[in-house]
C-alpha cells in the first residue's frame, strides 16, 4: 500500500477517482429526481438515459483520441463541470438533459482511463492498483447520496446537484496539480543541465 500511495501520480489518480465517484453516483441517483421534481418535468428518465448514452459514447470515442491520460482527466472533468453548471443554472429540463449528455460524453471515459493509467503506473501489481482505485471510487459513491440529500434538505435541490459540479472540479484539480508538479520538475531538471 505504501508503494502505491507513495507514488504522487497514483495518489492524485486515487483522489481524482474518489471525486469522480461522488459525481457519477450523484448523477445516477439524483438526476432523474432533479429533472422531475426540481424542474417539474417528465424528462427525468431521458436525462438518466442520456447520462448512460454519454458514458457509453465517451468510452468508445476517447480511446481513438491522441491525448495523454492525465491531460484528458483534467481537461474533461473541468469542461464537464462547466457544462453541468450551465445545465443546473438554466432551470430548463430540456437544456439540463442536453447538458447531462454533453457532460457524460466529455468525461465518461474517466474510469477506464484512470484505471488504465494506475495499472500502467503500478505494473508490478495491477490487481492491487485496480482494487485500490475501485475502493477509492466506491468511497466517493458512498459519500455522494447522503451529502447531496443533506444539502438538498437544507438549501434546495439545485444546490444538492451542485455537489456533482464541485466533485468534477475536484477530479480535475488534483491531477492538474500533479501535472504542474511534474512540469516544474522537468523544467527544473532542464535548467540544471
Strand tally? 0
> How much beta, percentage-wise?
under 5%
Categorize the overall geometry.
Answer: elongated
Instruction: Extract low-pLDDT stretches.
Output: none
Largest sheet: none
Q: Helix and strand string, N-terminal first?
A: HHHHHHHH
Instruction: Tell me the number of helical segments per DSSP (H or I, 4 or more residues long).
Output: 8
Q: What is the helix content?
A: over 70%
Structural class: mainly alpha
Mean pLDDT: 94
Our measurement of the CA-to-CA distance between the termini, rounded to an integer number of angstroms, reads 35 Å
Instruction: Give the C-alpha Rg.
Output: 17 Å
Q: How do the helices and strands line up, and which of them pair or pack?
A:
Elements: H1 2-5, H2 8-38, H3 44-61, H4 69-90, H5 93-107, H6 110-121, H7 126-155, H8 157-192
Helix pairs in contact: 2-3, 2-6, 2-7, 2-8, 3-5, 4-5, 4-6, 4-8, 6-7, 7-8
Features:
193 residues, mainly alpha, 8 helices, 87% helix, elongated
Task: Offer a quick outline of the entry.
With 193 residues, the protein is an all-alpha fold. Helices cover 87% and strands 0% of the residues. The longest helix is centred in the last third of the chain and has 36 residues, at 157-192.
Amino acid at each position: 500500500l505504501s508503494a502505491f500511495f507513495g507514488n504522487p501520480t497514483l495518489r492524485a489518480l486515487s483522489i481524482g477517482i474518489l471525486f469522480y465517484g461522488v459525481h457519477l453516483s450523484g448523477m445516477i441517483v439524483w438526476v432523474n429526481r432533479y429533472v422531475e421534481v426540481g424542474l417539474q418535468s417528465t424528462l427525468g428518465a431521458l436525462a438518466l438515459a442520456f447520462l448512460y448514452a454519454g458514458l457509453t459514447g465517451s468510452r468508445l470515442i476517447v480511446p481513438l483520441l491522441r491525448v495523454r491520460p492525465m491531460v484528458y482527466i483534467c481537461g474533461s472533468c473541468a469542461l464537464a463541470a462547466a457544462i453541468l453548471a450551465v445545465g443546473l443554472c438554466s432551470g430548463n429540463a430540456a437544456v439540463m438533459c442536453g447538458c447531462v449528455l454533453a457532460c457524460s460524453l466529455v468525461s465518461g471515459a474517466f474510469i477506464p482511463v484512470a484505471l488504465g493509467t494506475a495499472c500502467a503506473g503500478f505494473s508490478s501489481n495491477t490487481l492491487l492498483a485496480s482494487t485500490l482505485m475501485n475502493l477509492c471510487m466506491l468511497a466517493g459513491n458512498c459519500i455522494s447520496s447522503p451529502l447531496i440529500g443533506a444539502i438538498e434538505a437544507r438549501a434546495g435541490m439545485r444546490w444538492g446537484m451542485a455537489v456533482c459540479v464541485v466533485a468534477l472540479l475536484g477530479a480535475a484539480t488534483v491531477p492538474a496539480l500533479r501535472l504542474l508538479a511534474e512540469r516544474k520538475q522537468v523544467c527544473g531538471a532542464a535548467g540544471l543541465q
